[in-house]
Inverse folding.
């Protein structure tokens, strides 16, 4: 199982970023996919997930209405559109599926 996460970076509060996670090594369309994040000194937390087949989504309360998770089964890729970013969104964001995590991509929100 391999993941290539991209799209992280430095952004001001209120800005937007779109994270991508390209995957390989497993049957992407059969798995739910999640984005998690870990801020310095804090535990890793679930941000959003999307099911296989129906594409049902779930979000942490802290990101509802601001973040959108989506998937492209033809490209074996999952996305996380992040809008109205806040300082507290600063973290390393990880893609998760099939029992494995990606290496993560840093998102830093500055004032």
């Amino acid at each position: 199982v391999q993941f290539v996460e991209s799209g992280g970076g430095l952004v001001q509060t209120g800005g937007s970023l779109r994270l991508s996670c390209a995957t390989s090594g497993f049957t992407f369309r059969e798995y739910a996919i999640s984005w998690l994040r870990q801020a310095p000194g804090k535990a890793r937390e679930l941000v959003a997930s999307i099911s296989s087949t129906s594409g049902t989504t779930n979000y942490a309360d802290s990101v509802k209405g601001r973040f959108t998770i989506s998937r492209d089964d033809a490209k074996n890729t999952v996305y996380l559109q992040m809008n109205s970013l806040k300082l507290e969104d600063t973290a390393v964001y990880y893609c998760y599926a099939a029992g494995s995590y990606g290496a993560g991509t840093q998102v830093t929100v500055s004032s």
